[in-house]
Design a protein that fits this description.
The protein contains 5 helices and no strands. With 71 residues, the chain is an all-alpha fold. The chain has one domain. The two termini are 19 Å apart.
Length: 71
């Protein structure tokens, strides 16, 4: 699995557990993604969203693997 695919999969898993409350820090990157729509840029956004998710939510048994992968 590519880094992009892993980040996307992990973010969707986290969102299924508890939706991210504050997407604002990641939203700043959407304009750049629109200018340069690459998997590399999208993957970077997913990684940022994952770290943001863990700033809002605790690490649990269910999310520890994802945390260990990206933190």
């Amino acid at each position: 699995m590519s880094k992009y695919e892993q980040a996307k999969s992990d973010m969707y898993k986290l969102e299924s557990i508890i939706p991210l409350d504050d997407w604002l820090p990641v939203m700043d990157e959407f304009e750049e993604l629109m200018k340069d729509p690459t998997k590399k840029r999208a993957g970077s956004m997913y990684e940022g969203a994952i770290l943001l998710w863990f700033n809002e939510n605790p690490v649990t048994i269910e999310t520890k693997g994802i945390y260990d992968r990206w933190a």
